[in-house]
Amino acid sequence: MLSLLLSLLAPAAVLAAPCVEFDSNFNLYVFGLNGKDVNLGLQSSWASPTSAAVATSGRPPFTGTNIQCFLSQYNNAIYILGADNANPANVYIYDATGNSWSMSQVTAAGVDPASQVSVLDHDTNVFFSLSGGNLYQLDFGAITNVATGPTSWQAVESPSFQTTGYKPVMALAQNHIHFLDVPGNTAGEANIFVIHFAYFQPEVQSYPAATGNTFPETHGQATSFFDPNNNVQQQFAFIPDDNSAVYIVNVENNSTIPLTGPTDTTASTFAASTSALVQLTSAGSLYYMPFDQTNPSAAVTWSHITGFGTAATGSPTSSAGATNPVSRSGSSSSAVGPSSTSSGSNSNPSAGSARGGATGLKVSSQTVLALGAIALAACFFL
Ligand SMILES: *[C@@H]1O[C@H](CO)[C@@H](O)[C@H](O)[C@H]1NC(C)=O
Ligand SMILES: *[C@@H]1O[C@H](CO)[C@@H](O)[C@H](O)[C@H]1NC(C)=O
């Protein structure tokens, strides 16, 4: 019995959250969900996705706990950071044109792969990461879509703002890195690093909302909408950890538009294309919100994407997030798929209205794991 417990706990302890990203043609991919990667195709087919096979040879093990995925739009390549506990700084490259994987050897050189938060600059193909209160860069300008010789993170400088206790929120637009939730700022404010001048702007920039609320001073996830003509991003979405709203920040006219938040308030990661914001919950459920960059204030509805690959066959009837990671770690037959209607049972946290309802779910995937382990241990000792 003890060995059963340990065998259940061991995989749970290294369970990594899956991640979601697009290629340059805006096919949607889910990586590392129940040990698989899947290409769901274009937005027009998501009502009934026809999953295409993704190469398995050389794929990341998805053993990391701080995984981030990025599209290099010029190169039709997807970069995955933090996916390999054994080589935590290495970057896995998925070449979407050739449907093949390679691994770029990277030296951390002061960066903490377990906690770093990164963005990928659109034009230069350079990653920037805030780690331990310092800004670092990793230049993939020459690496593009297939790994070449080893490379290393390099220190850039320390921010002009206070980083003590700061859990970074970084958003990219117009070759500027926007730091949200910086200690001491108020709602709607961001600190800016101007990439092409390697310059921390001393002034805080404001992004007020003409109607409704601007983004709150809180931790969350950010992702940038891509330009259909392969130019720099001009708008990004910020989603607070409670998923209570989506804030569209437009860096051209310094404004914010609040939109309806996801229906599923589970801890999530997000990716954006030219015309959609996609949510992947830590339990593996997938949703999207269509978005028109030329009409950003249009009302949006979130839709559940189901029926993709083998990952979609599970149908957990309980909404207890704590049990999902554990069952995911078991054999493939217990795979937890994007579920059922259970995730829709949370009241719709439309902007600014349902904050309280989401509070209980404001947990990280690590917390969910810990709860899963505790729940299992409790079962064992009862
Ligand atoms: C946005 O803010 C920046 C910095 O304050 C300013 O230079 C720029 O003119 C503003 N843009 C508009 C359209 O107001
Ligand atoms: C900023 O630009 C967007 C996109 O064109 C537009 O919808 C929004 O109304 C503008 N906001 C302000 C405050 O001008």
Automatic annotation (TrEMBL):
<feature type="region of interest" description="Disordered">
    <location>
        <begin position="313"/>
        <end position="358"/>
    </location>
</feature>
<feature type="signal peptide">
    <location>
        <begin position="1"/>
        <end position="16"/>
    </location>
</feature>
<keyword id="KW-0732">Signal</keyword>
<feature type="compositionally biased region" description="Low complexity">
    <location>
        <begin position="313"/>
        <end position="353"/>
    </location>
</feature>
<protein>
    <submittedName>
        <fullName>Uncharacterized protein</fullName>
    </submittedName>
</protein>
